[in-house]
């Protein structure tokens, strides 16, 4: 199901070397509605899926269960037109900003998170400390433990 540019062109090596992939060669790809910030879904991309996404303007993912590429919307009509793609600071996640047509979730909901909130043990958060703003500077990296 290759409806994109020729597969004989590899992902730009400068991009490929920045990816921190799982042992299966995958990177998490978070799809977000570009104009509202709404988080739509989480998919997985390998280098080829990312290359197809960057060159076609349509979001392409790698299905771990089917072990094949799928371009969002080819069968459902619920396409994702890519507006931008960003790599996070650690290189282990992609943010794919899209214009979503129709449902993003295979269950038919707008997002894969609609109606799936988990209960908090303290819904009013009264016993939790206030969040601390950490400046986005090189010094801030020293204070993080999620590297």
Give me the secondary-structure topology.
Blueprint lengths: L12 H4 L10 E7 L5 E7 L1 H10 L3 E4 L4 E4 L8 E8 L5 E8 L37 H4 L6
Describe the structure.
12% of the residues lie in helices and 26% in strands. It is an alpha+beta fold. It has a domain at 25-115: Phosphoribosyl-AMP cyclohydrolase (Ubiquitin-like (UB roll)), CATH 3.10.20.810. The strands form two sheets. It has a four-stranded mixed beta sheet with strand order 2-1-6-5, covered by helices on one side. The protein has a two-stranded antiparallel ribbon with strand order 3-4. A hairpin with a 4-residue loop joins strand 3 and strand 4 (68-71). It starts with 12 loop residues before the first helix and ends in a 6-residue tail after the last helix. Mean pLDDT is 85; it is low at 1-5 and 136-147.
CATH architecture of the domain at 25-115: Roll
Low-confidence stretches: 1-5, 136-147
Alpha-beta classification: alpha+beta
The spatial strand order of the largest sheet comes to 2-1-6-5
CATH C-level category of the domain at 25-115: Alpha Beta
Percent helix, as a range, is 10-25%
- Which radius of gyration do the C-alpha atoms yield? 18 Å
Q: What's the story with the biggest beta sheet?
A: 4 strands, mixed
SSE ordering: HEEHEEEEH
Strand composition percent: 25-35%
* Structural shape: globular
For the record, give the distance between the C-alpha atoms at the N and C termini, rounded to a whole number: 37 Å
Average pLDDT, rounded to a whole number, is: 85
């Amino acid at each position: 199901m290759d409806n994109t540019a020729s597969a004989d062109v590899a992902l730009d090596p400068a991009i490929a070397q920045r990816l921190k992939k799982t042992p299966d060669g995958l990177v998490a790809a978070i799809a977000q509605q570009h104009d509202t910030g709404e988080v739509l879904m989480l998919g997985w991309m390998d280098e080829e899926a990312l290359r197809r996404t960057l060159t076609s303007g349509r979001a392409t993912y790698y299905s771990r269960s089917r072990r094949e590429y799928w371009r969002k919307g080819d069968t459902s009509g619920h396409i994702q037109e890519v507006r931008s793609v960003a790599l996070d600071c650690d290189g282990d996640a992609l943010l794919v900003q899209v214009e979503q047509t129709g449902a993003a979730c295979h269950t038919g909901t707008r997002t894969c998170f609609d109606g799936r909130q988990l209960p908090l043990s303290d819904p009013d958060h009264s016993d939790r400390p206030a969040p601390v703003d950490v400046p986005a500077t090189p010094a801030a990296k020293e204070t993080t433990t999620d590297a």
